[in-house]
Amino acid sequence: METQPVEPTAPVVVEKPQKKSKIWIIIGFVVLLGVIVLLFINNSTQSKKHQEEIVALQVQYQNDLNRLGRANVTIDSLFKVAYHLEKYRGLVEAGYTRDSSRIAIPHYVGDVVMLKVDSSRVVITDIVVGGSQFEYYVRYRVQHKDRAIEEVAPEMIF
After folding, report:
1. Spatial separation of the C-alpha atoms in residues 123 and 118, rounded to whole Å
2. Which residue, among 130, 127, 117, has the nearest Cα to 151 in the 3D structure?
């Protein structure tokens, strides 16, 4: 048997890790750990701020509900008063109409004026305002010397 010559195999070289690559791994790990800690701290502070805002909004909401309740009580009491006075609405509107019409007329109650019909002197005893929702009229109630009462239009007096 012939022996074959054995060729020497290349020696296995074991590479030692370099110190620089270990340092970079450690630096990366520390930086990653620092970023995680910063994110955790930021998240917790944001959560606290969020909780404080929620509490503030709840307090404001309760205050608004209390004010709304007081406003509703006031509205209800005013509605009762207004409902009770509703039957006087026509009288009040007539008073407004009468008062606003007196602004435009030149004579007042108690004035002594002359009638255009017969040039007699009369005393205005009242101002009568009437009409409907969309129109109204104004008349003077006058008293003659013989105590006769008559209603005349403002155009009939000078």
Report:
1. 15
2. 127
